[in-house]
């Protein structure tokens, strides 16, 4: 098996190490020369270029979204030349960005026009660290993997999903789910981006400096993802700005209800607000455990 | 050693089981007859009453704040009669409420007027479950314990803190810190109450129902404490309403800045907001690890 990787950050580097540990040949590309040199010591066989692309079964775009699209624009023609969607010949190209509408709209179009296979993906794993130095072969072990296939007829869609599943399964993902770019971005604005914004905003209270000695577990959980890569997240969030803005507005509205109850000294109202959140949380947990 | 406990919920019940497992004699009181019966099978020796109070070294008030103060009003006279602050004779009474100003103001007064020893405490442990059935002897193992002594001369204060530390240390707390009721309530509004409000409000987004299949670890962390005891938390939060309302307002203001940057399509501003939170979080983590 041969795997090509564009961008050797935490995600791309972890894919490289994971496939290498499975015995695959890995070709890769990174704009940073030191990263490139480090990766070629024991992980990457050779640069990903027009010579190595044709031997790849899977090409993983793991740079920032814009850089991934630029690579795809530049290589759409060669990818089309070595592929035949009718016979499943040629590599499957996937991206790994945390937002899907912005990337998939253009990538689906390039794949359709040039005749190669592309599936959007979002491997839901990460750490607060970034870069190849922190990449780990087991980063994706047990993690959820979201697949975002193009709109096409059912038979071709199933074949495509089956091929990408077969290529990705050895990495050890905990689950696979399939969704549309729009649904993905709506959900991710809530489960991931809003969580990072809230955590990042939480520590800005003037009281944050004063809590040493008795911070609770709840505080640690709430602020765990306050530490993040600002450039990467700003790009992801801006690509999903409408959904995320709505989620922030919705949360602000919900928070304000508690504040009003506190200011009014209305304990019954506060208890009802807390009971409502408790009820929703229990219902969600029940659904999740019976899913 | 003899320990008296008022209220056999999660906290009182866990103190009862912890001291019993250390070989202490435990007297206790709960308004619920089934809890009382269950506790007397293997944990509690006999009810805490005028007959058993004089033999106690430590009396732990672990009911809701108002109920604790009522018990203290009713027993202030007998506690004074068996105590001598000058010779450290008589039990030390502690409460365990999550807010300290409301309870300590009255309890310090009762202790001073009647001549018995009282120290406010806040054991920072808990689970999302409540009640004696979930009480565990190891609930406090490694947990931070906050002590809130009365304003008095330094020598008496040190003696009091030393006595209460000696009585509580065998339980296995991870750390002890000493603060004032006002400072405690200001910090706890931020580290604990705000975390519960945010978590409880977070799940109220209409999107919460749609995320199954790909929720991230950040979502699980953010919503862990959404499940809570609404009656208890409404009482705690109402007793700390001013501080908590300020923290909610401060968080709303911080969140709104991200929303405005998103709506304006201002990626640089969004990146700066994220970088600011990241910087503060790293500074806090550095302080905590060097403390």
Provide a quick synopsis of the model.
The structure is a homodimer of 291-residue chains. Chain A has 291 residues and is α/β, with parallel strands linked by helices. In chain A, strands 3-2-1-4-5-6-7-8 form an eight-stranded mixed beta sheet, with helices on both faces.
Give the tags.
10 helices, NAD+ binding (chains A, B), 2 domains, prephenate dehydrogenase (NADP+) activity (chains A, B), NAD(P)-bd_dom_sf (chains A, B), oxidoreductase (chains A, B), homodimer, alpha/beta, 291 residues, PDH_C (chains A, B), Rossmann fold, 6-phosphogluconate dehydrogenase C-terminal fold, 8 strands
Structure notes:
Two copies of one chain form a homodimer. Chain A is α/β, with parallel strands linked by helices. The first copy, chain A, has two domains: 178 residues, Rossmann fold, CATH 3.40.50; 107 residues, 6-phosphogluconate dehydrogenase C-terminal fold (Orthogonal Bundle). Helices cover 53% and strands 12% of the residues of chain A. Chain A is built from ten helices and eight strands. An eight-stranded mixed beta sheet of chain A has the order 3-2-1-4-5-6-7-8, sandwiched between helices. In chain A, strand 4, helix 3 and strand 5 form a beta-alpha-beta unit. In chain A, helix 3 packs parallel to helix 4, helix 6 packs across helix 9 and helix 9 runs antiparallel to helix 10. The radius of gyration of chain A is 22 Å and the shape is elongated. At the A-B interface, helix 6, helix 7, helix 8, helix 9 and helix 10 of A face helix 6, helix 7, helix 8, helix 9 and helix 10 of B.
């Amino acid at each position: 098996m041969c795997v090509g990787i564009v961008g050797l950050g935490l995600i791309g580097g972890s894919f490289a190490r994971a496939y290498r540990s499975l015995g695959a040949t890995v070709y890769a590309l990174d704009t940073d020369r030191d990263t490139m040199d480090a990766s070629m010591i024991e992980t990457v066989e050779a640069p990903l270029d027009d010579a190595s692309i044709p031997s790849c079964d899977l090409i993983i775009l793991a740079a920032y979204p814009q850089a991934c699209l630029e690579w795809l624009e530049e290589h759409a023609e060669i990818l089309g030349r070595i592929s035949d969607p009718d016979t499943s010949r040629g590599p499957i190209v996937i991206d790994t960005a945390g937002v899907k509408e912005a990337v998939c709209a253009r990538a689906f179009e390039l794949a359709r026009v040039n005749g190669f296979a592309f599936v959007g993906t979002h491997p839901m794993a990460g750490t607060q660290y970034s870069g190849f130095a922190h990449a780990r072969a087991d980063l994706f072990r047990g993690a959820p993997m979201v697949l975002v296939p193009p709109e096409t007829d059912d038979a071709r869609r199933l074949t495509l999903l089956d091929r990408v599943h077969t290529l990705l399964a050895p990495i050890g993902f905990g689950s696979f789910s399939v969704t549309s770019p729009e649904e993905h971005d709506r959900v991710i604005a809530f489960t991931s981006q809003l969580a990072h914004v809230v955590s990042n905003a939480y520590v800005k209270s003037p009281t944050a400096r004063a809590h040493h000695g008795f911070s609770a577990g709840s505080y640690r959980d709430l602020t765990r993802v306050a530490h993040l890569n600002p450039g990467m997240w700003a790009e992801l969030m801006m690509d999903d700005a409408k959904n995320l803005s709505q989620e922030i507005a919705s949360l602000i509205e919900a928070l304000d209800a508690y504040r009003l109850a506190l200011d009014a000294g209305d304990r019954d109202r506060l208890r009802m607000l807390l009971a409502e959140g408790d009820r929703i949380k229990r219902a969600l947990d029940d659904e999740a455990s019976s899913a």
